[in-house]
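Issue: ligand-bound run for FE2/S2 (inorganic) cluster - logging full I/O for the record.

Environment: standard queue, default settings, no custom constraints.

Inputs:
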Amino acid sequence: MYVCLCKGITDGQIREAVDQGCDSLRDLRRELGVASQCGKCARQARGVIREARTES
Ligand code: FES
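Outputs:
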């Protein structure tokens, strides 16, 4: 499922980034560009980070 349409980033890519140490929206923005354009995905991206953390 796409989370960030501007950058074409899926929840799977975000989970992978969290596995590799991304721990915040700021990290994700730096690594993947999530929420670096319109910013509409920020809330959902945070939710995916939170989920991925509790799963691992
Ligand atoms: Fe992520 Fe626009 S949808 S920056």
